Request: fold
Amino acid sequence: MDIIKTINLTKEFGPLVANNHINLTVKENEVKAIVGENGAGKSTLMNMLYGLIKPTSGEIYVENELVALRSPNDAISRGIGMVHQHFKLVPSLTVFENILLGVEINKEVTIGNKKIRLPGINRHKELEVVKNLIDKYELNINPDDEVKKLSIGAKQKVEILKMLYRQVKILIFDEPTAVLTPQEILVFYTMLRNLKAKGTTIILITHKLQEVIDISDSVTVIKKGKVVANLATKNTTKKQLAQLMVGRDVLLNVSKTYADYHNQESVYRLEHVSTINRNGVEVVSDVSLNLHRGEIVGIAGVEGNGQSELLDLMSGLLQSTQGKVFLHNQDITNVLPEKLRKKHMAFIPEDRYEQGLCRDMTICDNMIAGYHDSDDICHMGFISAKKKMDKAERLATKYDIRLNSLKDKISSLSGGNAQKVIIAREFASDPDILIAAQPTRGVDIGAIEYIHKSLLDLQNHGKSILLVSSELSEIMSLSDRILVMYKGRIIGQLDAKNASREEVGYLMMGIIDNKEGGSEHESQNVIDE
Ligand SMILES: Nc1ncnc2c1ncn2[C@@H]1O[C@H](COP(=O)(O)OP(=O)(O)OP(=O)(O)O)[C@@H](O)[C@H]1O
Ligand SMILES: [Mg+2]
Reply:
């Protein structure tokens, strides 16, 4: 049975047609993947199915019945649930409280043929319901835990539980694995299989083509707001999907010439730096590293082992409690980000909305933020509106940022296009040193290819890059040297040319001496000289 069917579903934002007569069919109990470039209209389509935005025209059928979905509550009552990429949980509440939030005052019971809204809930009974769901779907989570203490993977489980508790039959995931660690991704796949086995229909938006091949039954390709292909997954390949999405062959792996960094001068150096997080816990401990001219150093590690804080420290956002940082032998310890930018350092932060962009500003202003006083647009303290606009236009074209108007707020951009704004801005500053965290998170394969090529191009021009990524393949294919962080320390380094995934994987688990049988100990630092 077709559990969801859309007919000529269309959404316009002013002159921009984000969804153009979309005919989508989802079969009951299948895993349907939706792929397409950044800005193709995937999230827009899903937001209409979840009642978050209203179609301009067209029809939605759920189980062969024409529906008008005016709100997420409407969608949920039709059995459609959604897990967003940016979770919508209340951190100070427990898992159980989050699950019930919004339901507790609306709980309806039927007595005879009358429906009555109950003012409260039977906590004990509902807790049993939640516990049964946790067991049934093997979610392995404690309902009494506070959400703020949970990992990202666990928070995602709470979002899923929230939907299951509301008895949805169809679950939409918008880029669910973009923010998960490789380990969490495996858990997520198991969870999906469980959901499917118990009868749930799944719609999955993803940029990871291997994921499409591994877990979906069918795939729909969207390009510029239109459906361009419907395929059975078993009859397609990553190459074909890439071609359909982008309209040309995409290099899924870039080729790299390795830098001979040993002979190059050191341009940036950390000497025994440590730092603490907001709770006063030491999260970076005695880290030393050397970045040479023309070298890409990748920092690998399971998320939460200090990489984020190390990057914040290098970007001037976190103060070090110990140790020194040098740029061309000049002490720059605890220098603020704006000063570092003036010294030709550039930063691509991990969380694009928290640290990389200002939601309330226009796309144009975000495109120059941090570099607004550079000579090309600013003269004697005054920014030229025309030059600013010209520059933003040039960058939008060069980086293929799909937008309506540069004067729109940045929040109107699709996720991947927002990331491209940061990439464009930071690359345009022509930095000597680039500190890049998760540079391709949420961007489409065509853009990944472009960003990877641009990083290598920067390197070929003698610039140095520090790269943190949870995509091990990204670290392995771009770096000259790989450092692995574990529990706040750098516990090993490898020449990327000869390194294997297994070797890096062992180090990521804190195992340093795997050749001698896998003894686990936390080492002192390895410093490259
Ligand atoms: N609220 C809005 N106002 C104006 N334009 C919007 C709005 N929401 C989306 N758009 C535009 O609609 C188009 C489709 O966006 P959408 O978020 O659906 O893309 P997407 O396929 O999910 O991309 P990504 O892979 O980057 O997440 C984009 O050009 C985007 O800028
Ligand atoms: Mg999207």
About this structure: The chain has 17 helices and 27 strands. Residues 514-529 have pLDDT under 50 and may be disordered.
